[in-house]
Amino acid sequence: NVMKIPIAMVPFIVQLLLQVSFASYATFVLIDERNVLTAEIAFVAAALFNVMKIPIAMVPFIVQLLLQFFVSVKRINNFLNAEELEFGSVSHDKTRKEPLIIEGGTFSWDSEKAGCEVLRNITLKVQPGQLVAVVGAVGSGKSSLISAFLGEMDKISGYVNTNGKIAYV
What parts of the sequence cross the membrane (predicted)? Predict the structure, then answer.
């Protein structure tokens, strides 16, 4: 998972800070004409490395937050640019005694693609007071069936009627 990579980098960055500190001290000793690392210079450098430790350690978390930000912006953009739902696909006929009805319903997530129906020839009548559990294997259409009742899928054919209040948990 791309989101977990920055967190995995934290131990690497801590080791990198130690190596950069050591390389900085070694470079100073080699470049200095006297080849001497005084206590004054060592402690000032150590303090600067200590000050830099926290901001550098935050880099993986900032990268992770940026990745989450871009994913969120993409999802919001897709949602705002999505086509409007067709509100006429679900009837609300109060004369029918059943609170939930699908008769001969065929549904698709994209009605423009022929042959991509997710639910085909569904007939379901839920009687008043009846407890219904929608169970099945992953990818068997449970969420699609609920979405068909809510009018979130494209209705290719059939009749859908909801009567009363619907709670989707």
Answer: 12-31, 43-67
